[in-house]
Design a protein that fits this description.
77% helix, transmembrane helix, membrane, DUF3429 domain-containing protein, mainly alpha, 0% strand, DUF3429
Length: 158
């Protein structure tokens, strides 16, 4: 006799994985143009300074960290009562963090983003633990956060 598998499917949907990895490309571009002075110069000449090195890492990182507040808000909307109130309150933290702490020079802004994305991972865990996120959420968030924090760290090193 076989026992049916009642565990939730934690495999990341292909579309979510592809789009999530595509969202990492600007971070990778920022890190690559930070590590390679020739590529950095080419990017600045052809696209402008905002699209190279730490500038792209900080600008895009700020956009994505703020965007993730909206994702968490959507998860909070699935809850009711006190859980919804807590979820809505927590969901605005990444956007407020970005507004108040990302700035003050490249290194400070990059550190603020690294801390912000790691904090976001903690919030992701909380939303997943309360059953507000899909069962595969932590798998994709752990992967994407690792890649993003890695790219941001390279921006600090080079």
């Amino acid at each position: 006799m076989t026992v049916p598998n009642t565990a939730p499917d934690t495999s990341i949907p292909n579309s979510a994985l592809a789009l999530g990895l595509a969202g990492v490309l600007p971070f990778a571009w920022g890190a690559l143009t930070d590590m390679n002075p020739e590529l950095h110069g080419w990017a600045v000449r052809n696209f402008g300074a905002r699209f190279a090195g730490q500038d792209v890492l900080i600008f895009y990182g700020s956009v994505i960290l703020s965007f993730m507040s909206g994702v968490l808000w959507g998860f909070a909307a699935r809850a009711e009562g006190r859980t919804a109130t807590i979820g809505f309150t927590l969901s605005v933290i990444p956007a407020l963090w970005t507004f108040f702490f990302v700035g003050g020079g490249e290194d400070r802004a990059t550190w603020a983003l690294i801390i912000g994305f790691l904090g976001l991972l903690g919030l992701d865990y909380g939303f997943a633990r309360f059953g507000l996120a899909p069962p595969w959420w932590m798998n994709i968030r752990t992967l994407l956060t690792s890649l993003v924090v890695g790219c941001l760290t390279l921006g600090l090193i080079f």
